[in-house]
Amino acid sequence: MKILALHTLAFLHVHRRALLVFYLFFTGLVLAAIAPLFSSALAALRPITGHAAISTGGLVQFVVSPGGLLWLSATATLTAFLVILQQAGMTWIAASGGGREYRIAIATLWALAQRFKQLLTLTLLQLGGHALIAVPFLLAIVASYQWLISPHDIYYLKLERPPEVWWFLGISGVAALGIAVCNGWLYLRWALSVPLLLLERMGARDALRQSSHYVHGQRLPVMGALIAGLVGLALTPIAVTWLFQAAGGEILTSLPERMGVLMPVTLGLIALYTLFTLTAAFAGIAAYSMLTYSVYRQATGHHRHSTAQNLPRRASPLAWSAELLIIILAATQAWFVLQSFDHRDDVSITAHRGSAFKAPENTMSAIEQAIEDGADYIEVDIRMTADGVPVLWHDTDMRRVFGLSGRISDITLEQARARDAGSWFGPAFSDERIATLERVIETTRGRAHLYLDLKPAPETPDLTREVVHMLQRMDAVENTVIAAAEWRVLAEARQLEPSLKTSLLAQFIVGPLWEQDFDILGLRQNRVTPATVARTHRAGNELHVWTVNTPQAMSRFIDMGVDNIITDRPAMLAQLLQRRQALTDAELLVIKLRNWLR
């Protein structure tokens, strides 16, 4: 292991500039070539799915459809192929006899072009092998989901956690472990296939076969070295981020309260972070490629060299120019990031099902509490009873609230109001009854806006029409948001009342947003990034994030520039916004910098 580490560092030191120049050239070519391909792939979603983008509602149908499987396979193949191409290029440089960096990088790109077909074949064989191993485990997860989870409401399972949940998690855990072990072992067995194909001029199948032979012969040292390299590759960006989070806050809080000082220092910190991140990404990828090449040399005993022509005298200045380019890019990004910092906290508060931490969700108590807590919007879930009355109800069944297995659409409003809708939360709410949309409209008028999450079911196809007609009849259309997880619901609402604001609620979304007719994109919090916010705003949409219940996450999303935070704790968010208004410029910059680094 020690010898492999020394060889890896030696290769990295000797070829560092050639590797850097190749890394920049390769990244530039990929961006230039992949951007049109990615746009074409997204455009292909429309004939496959009927929509220009995929949201939560259409995800399962997309994944299991022939067109969806083809689209996902093509995307996975392209991603894996780019990874293999980059590793192959760095392996070729490591095997070169040295020389000037610029010509070596160009020669490497040409060598990859000459072996394009063989490397693509290798990629397809590897993906096929991994798929064959993973499919049985994935089928076990799908079967256990259909058997144990699908018959129940997800929210009921999340809160009550019956035995079915633990059985499903156990089966899924074993299957995931099986994938990690089996596919991980296959990855290690084939880890030397790239240098074998490239330097020994083998075919793809022979390279995979020989790689398995060599790795099997030196199983422990090879596995240990490669696993250590992968762990190091994963931990590098985490370490860089942690370092700058710790140092940046200390530096900014120690400076005088003058924007003329704070802004340049913040700009410098962001530029340094960008530079270190780019360097760490390059160093991690290059080091792992050098490690793989060192393992190849040790396992095979071959010291083959790739051929590289002598370079002109200007090669060294050109290599320096590549390093200068990275510094310029880091400074440019730092400037744009600093310009994006807004000292105003322009975000609305939406109470998720009312103040659901203080009162039973979707009840009048929760709504009154949310108004008292300072919510701008009250988000409630709307379903329909058997007699066609829109009521506040989230789950697909009545098990969690009423203790019944049927649906709310199976009983009338009178039957529903005869049951206790609050004791499941606490005995103090035993008198709580199911709330109607009509009563909620009257209660919130002039006090808060409504955010109606419509949940139509096959047995209640008229839900959207009834809700929109009620809003029109009660003069409550203005400032009301109609939300749903399905495109067709929003389209129907907009057709019935063009002035309604509509919100698509999604776990994630791909595809061009500007081709869809909605006003707001509501995303789960683990899917929201600064890039997502910027992309949504460019499309002319607002971005709302759900469900955010910690002050750290709230602060991070405020600084990302989201338009609305949906939370079970509106009072906490209102207090956070008040505290931020009282911060000094330096304190606010520290918070924004830390949130940007996360």
What does this structure look like?
It is built from 24 helices and nine strands. Mean pLDDT is 82; it is low at 307-315. Helix content is 63%, strand content 8%. It starts with a helix and ends with a helix. With 598 residues, the protein is of the alpha/beta class. Strands 1-2-4-5-6-7-8-9 form an eight-stranded parallel barrel, surrounded by six helices. It folds into two domains: 2-307 and 314-340, no CATH class; 348-597, Phosphatidylinositol (PI) phosphodiesterase (TIM Barrel, Alpha-Beta Barrel). It has helices at 2-14, 16-43, 45-49, 59-64, 66-94, 101-114, 116-149, 154-160, 163-189, 193-199, 204-217, 219-253, 259-300, 315-340, 364-372, 399-402, 413-417, 437-444, 463-473, 487-496, 530-538, 551-560, 570-581, 585-597; strands at 348-352, 377-384, 390-392, 449-454, 481-484, 501-506, 520-524, 542-546, 564-567. Residues 347-577 form the GP-PDE domain. One of its GO terms (molecular function) is phosphoric diester hydrolase activity. This is Glycerophosphoryl diester phosphodiesterase.
Question: What is the secondary structure topology, with strand pairs?
Answer:
Layout: H1 2-14, H2 16-43, H3 45-49, H4 59-64, H5 66-94, H6 101-114, H7 116-149, H8 154-160, H9 163-189, H10 193-199, H11 204-217, H12 219-253, H13 259-300, H14 315-340, E1 348-352, H15 364-372, E2 377-384, E3 390-392, H16 399-402, H17 413-417, H18 437-444, E4 449-454, H19 463-473, E5 481-484, H20 487-496, E6 501-506, E7 520-524, H21 530-538, E8 542-546, H22 551-560, E9 564-567, H23 570-581, H24 585-597
Parallel strand pairs: 1-2, 1-9, 2-4, 4-5, 5-6, 6-7, 7-8, 8-9
Antiparallel strand pairs: 2-3
Helix pairs in contact: 1-13, 2-5, 2-6, 2-14, 5-6, 5-7, 5-10, 5-13, 7-9, 7-11, 10-11, 12-13, 12-24, 13-14, 13-24, 19-20, 22-24
